[in-house]
Amino acid sequence: MKSLIVVKIGGHVIDNPGQLQPFLQAFAGLEGAKILVHGGGSIATRMGHRLGIESKYVGGRRITDEASLELITMVYGGLVNKQLVAVLQQAGCNAIGLSGADGKMILAERRVVKDVDYGFVGDVQAGGVNQRFLQTLLEAGLQPVLAPLSYSDSVGLLNTNADTIAQEVAKAMSSYYATQLIYCFEKAGVLRDQLEEGSVIPQIDEVSFLQLQQEGVVADGMIPKLSNALAARAAGVQSIVIGKAADLPELVSLVKEHKYYD
Amino acid sequence: MKSLIVVKIGGHVIDNPGQLQPFLQAFAGLEGAKILVHGGGSIATRMGHRLGIESKYVGGRRITDEASLELITMVYGGLVNKQLVAVLQQAGCNAIGLSGADGKMILAERRVVKDVDYGFVGDVQAGGVNQRFLQTLLEAGLQPVLAPLSYSDSVGLLNTNADTIAQEVAKAMSSYYATQLIYCFEKAGVLRDQLEEGSVIPQIDEVSFLQLQQEGVVADGMIPKLSNALAARAAGVQSIVIGKAADLPELVSLVKEHKYYD
What we know:
Two copies of one chain form a homodimer.
Chain A: E1 3-9, H1 11-15, H2 17-29, E2 33-38, H3 43-51, E3 56-58, E4 61-63, H4 66-90, E5 95-98, E6 106-110, E7 122-129, H5 131-139, E8 143-146, E9 149-152, E10 156-159, H6 162-173, E11 178-185, H7 206-214, H8 222-234, E12 239-244, H9 248-258
């Protein structure tokens, strides 16, 4: 089985050229088949301010109305995606930037309205990742760069969380590739003490995840992230690593050396 | 030799949903391999106004400064490109939206500064169209949708006229496919009398082109358009047709029936 690395790059890194440039160099330098999934960081929010498009919230949840979907399509699907592709090409990586509509790559359903209408938000369909299409690109020596946009035949483009896209793509590809999923963000990993960069928890499984939640070590946004990571692992992804963008080569070799989750 | 249709869609059509929707349905319905090239119409100008990015001109020529390049990347490479892809997918056409940086598809050089520095404007390199990449996509049953952005290893993304992209792509592909190039805009063709839709000139060659210029029938923006079309014809493109977006199926069958330029 060939190997594949799926890397999700967080918004804080995209906002910070000093972190983004070395990350992209490192990504370009990785051997073998690889896929980059990106969010958009604060660029969409800033661009929205300038355009008079403000994020709307209902019960603390962000709503994607039509103007917000257009903003995301422009900023994530266009500006961020194409700039990442251009920098990767300059670094010798044959990148191709895509949304979920391109090649019908990521089929989603508009989130069902219960208490809250989230607007143009897509939940990836079961079997919704077009792995054959991604395989065609990878086998042609291309490295897909995916914007957080999915697609529905009935609605068109939809906004989907980049973590979810990364996880669904890694899951779908794991039937054909020994797949590693790496979440890159601004911290060194899941920290036991948020103020102490050296306090990275080296390995987390279902049991320790519950314990870490009970202890309050893992909280807020880290809970769905880890819960998704464990679900991806259960669904066949060979390893999932969370760590600092600048440490990407070390994160990859960490997996190879220690065979985490192997 | 397999056949290929390269269609350029003009800005006025993109701006007008009543023209765009039937055009996209017609494009989706065309048999065989096809490529769509689009500009952005007035959306970029309007979005620029809202963002406080104004087009700059030197000696009547538009300059692409860094802010304008970002605007074009967002609007053409993101908003317009992905919306066209989504509508085509909904119409059953397996579209894939790309810039010149994706797969290093269109290599360009930043226009040399002589009297005027045009900014981030790219002139397509000789041999700069990656026909192998386009061929891979076409053979996988994908229909490329190209934004008017080219790429340079030294500069990154560059702004390139959509007519030029269409012409260069058609020229490059004509070694491998019997290629038709169709420019779709809001008029029925090259008109002898601008006020008379029925006055379409049925066929133009090098000799009649000169004559039409002398008579003043062909003027302004139509001169470079026709001059490029004739150059593409000379470089191996089998036929070039200019006509109304809504008439796309007729324009295609016109070529087949009358074998214009064949």
